[in-house]
Write a structure and sequence with these properties.
Order of helices and strands: HHHHH
Radius of gyration: 34 Å
Number of strands: 0
Keywords: Chaperone, Coiled coil, Cytoplasm, Nucleus
Protein name: DnaJ homolog subfamily C member 17
Subcellular location: Cytoplasm; Nucleus
Distance between the termini: 103 Å
Strand content: under 5%
InterPro entries: DnaJ_domain, J_dom_sf, Pre-mRNA-splicing_ERAD
Main location: cytoplasm
Length: 137
């Protein structure tokens, strides 16, 4: 039997029930799912056996009041962390966009004032050329 990692699995989702389901509903959902993936009914399918063991572990956790309470705390903490991460992603995206905008402004400034002649400077040169005295021949 492979090492079953239930940390990444939502046990309620695995059983197809809501987190508010009563113990009887948990048992009923377990029986229904366990019938379809029982190792005796699927001897050549190792994934079915692994799913059956996950279902058994889910039943064990969700029918024990203290284990279920601990699992619910962990599950809620994971959901809260995921929400915080999603919010941070949007903040990071906004900061990145603002940084790119500032970089574009800095690039425009550098082109305008460091080595490039702006349109207003060109216009000033044209005006001064028109009013400057003609060279003596």
């Amino acid at each position: 039997m492979s090492n079953i990692n239930l940390k990444d699995v939502d046990l309620y989702e695995l059983l197809g029930i809501l987190s508010t389901a009563a113990t009887q509903e948990v048992k009923k959902a377990y029986r229904k799912k366990a019938l379809s993936c029982h190792p005796d009914k699927n001897p050549d399918n190792p994934k079915a056996a692994e799913l059956f063991h996950q279902l058994s572990k889910a039943l064990e956790i969700l029918t024990d009041e203290s284990a279920r309470a601990a699992y619910d705390r962990v599950l809620n903490a994971k959901k809260a962390a995921k929400l915080r991460h999603r919010e941070l992603d949007s903040k990071r995206r906004k900061l990145k966009e603002e940084l790119e905008a500032r970089e574009q402004q800095a690039e425009k400034f550098a082109k305008q004032y460091h080595g490039y002649i702006s349109k207003t400077d060109e216009q000033k040169l044209q005006v001064t050329d028109k009013f400057s005295p003609a060279p003596a021949s």
